[in-house]
Design brief:
The chain has about 350 residues and is of the alpha/beta class. The protein folds into two domains: about 160 residues, Rossmann fold, CATH 3.40.50.1970; about 180 residues, Dehydroquinate synthase-like, alpha domain (Up-down Bundle), CATH 1.20.1090. The chain is built from 14 helices and eleven strands. The strands form three sheets. A seven-stranded mixed β-sheet has the order 1-2-9-6-5-3-4, sandwiched between helices. Strand 10 and strand 11 form a beta hairpin. The radius of gyration is 20 Å and the shape is globular. It binds nicotinamide-adenine-dinucleotide. The site of nicotinamide-adenine-dinucleotide has 31 residues, from helix 2, helix 5, helix 6, strand 8 and helix 7.
Length: about 350
């Protein structure tokens, strides 16, 4: 599968990808190779990864707890302490072998350690393959507030090995699929049609769709690396989606939602807002929303849930000067940035979501 050229680094795939990795390890002569894993990727992915790595350098493994609740500064401190104890220096390399939590946190840890060491992302979830590992955004959460602390810094390489998907729980595949649907919605009718009619469990078609998804994300990032304009379109569904994800993470009486599950709801809400604010045809919004909902269960929200979610919107990273901005759609593949929505309209969007099964 053809490598994708990103900003100062390549995204490479499965078999030949390891040749690229091994070439970098040989050429750069790193002092020590550190592999950051969480306990699940330690168990499911590390052995396979190590089998492909050819190096005479010392390899040290650093393990963190799995899950979003550990994507925080306390975990970073633990990794920094481990790096120090294991004598990491500025010529050390950190390889992030895991999902978006490991690649986001590991990238951030690498950027700050001794003012920056090289890192490589080896994504092991669908979400990290198509989204988190590419584009240079690194960082951690602050309490329940998503990705409040972080920097933009690029890896030396992203190595996508589809083998890792074999051990990924099905709900994690479904979660990652939301970002692929998003890439279609904001960028390409052709890709949307392909991804909405495929399935996250059909591995034969999935690898090609993953490749195309990365191509779309990479093109957007190359055009606008620091999110001054078009890169904001990658946040489609994320303004409300992140607030929903945070709310379900904190609320005691709620079952946690995975990132992609929350984003899927956020995209359906954004589809509705688009009909009111940016001219998306209502039948189109219904069609797009039903196609999304085909992959996800309907979640119930009462008025106090919605009020709490709206309160959380004020922490969104895209806010500026006290305003909350949404990415919406004029049409399929045509995003419109910096849109404002009233609370009343957001309530109506939740009604649209709740009634979707009846329409
Ligand atoms: P995750 O990293 O928590 O992984 C999900 C679960 O799968 C974890 O329990 C993990 O241990 C397990 N796992 C990972 N790979 C496995 C494998 N191959 N086999 C078995 N289990 C495996 O979550 P995620 O969904 O990958 O990523 C979500 C994170 O990504 C969020 O924090 C989100 O903010 C971030 N993100 C970042 C960007 C970005 O541009 N930087 C973009 C999108 C999402």
């Amino acid at each position: 599968m053809q490598a994708i050229k990103a900003k100062n680094y390549d995204v490479v795939f499965t078999d030949s990808g390891y040749q690229n990795l091994n070439k970098i390890l040989k050429e750069k002569e790193y002092s020590i190779l550190f592999i950051l894993v969480d306990s699940n990727t330690h168990e499911s992915c590390l052995a396979h990864f190590l089998q492909q790595v050819e190096t005479s350098q010392t390899i040290e493994i650093i393990e963190i707890e799995p899950g979003e609740e550990f994507k925080n500064l306390e975990t970073c401190e633990g990794v920094w302490a481990a790096l120090s104890e294991l004598n990491a220096d500025r010529q050390s390399l950190l390889i992030n072998l895991g999902g978006g939590v490991v690649t986001d946190l590991g990238g951030f840890v690498a950027c700050c350690f001794k003012r920056g060491i090289d890192f490589i992302n080896v994504p092991t979830t669908l979400l990290a393959m198509v989204d988190a590992s590419v584009g240079g955004k690194t960082g951690v959460d602050l309490g329940a507030l998503k990705n409040q602390i972080g920097v933009i810094s690029n890896p030396q390489l992203v190595l996508v090995d589809f083998t890792f998907l074999n051990t990924l729980p099905v709900e994690e595949l479904r979660s990652g699929y939301a970002e692929m649907l998003k890439h279609g919605l904001i960028n390409s009718e052709l890709y949307w049609n392909a991804v909405k009619s495929a399935s996250y469990s059909d591995f034969d078609s999935l690898s090609e769709l993953i490749h195309q998804s990365i191509v779309i994300k990479n093109e957007v990032v190359l055009e606008d690396p620091f999110e001054k304009g078009i890169r904001k379109s990658l946040n489609y569904g994320h303004t409300l989606g992140h607030a929903i994800e945070s709310y379900f993470m904190e609320a005691r009486d709620k079952t946690r939602l995975l990132h992609g599950e929350a984003i899927a709801i956020g995209m359906i809400l954004a589809n509705y807002l688009s009909t009111k604010l940016t001219g998306l045809n209502i039948n189109k919004a219904l069609e797009l929303s039903k196609s999304i909902l085909k992959f996800y269960d309907l979640v119930s929200f009462n008025d106090s849930d919605i009020e709490a979610i709206i309160t959380l919107l004020k922490y969104d990273k895209k806010n500026s000067h006290g305003n909350i901005y949404f990415v919406l759609l004029e049409d399929l593949g045509k995003p419109k940035l910096n849109q404002k929505a009233s609370n009343e309209l957001i309530f109506n969007a939740f009604d649209f979501y709740k009634n979707l099964c009846n329409k």
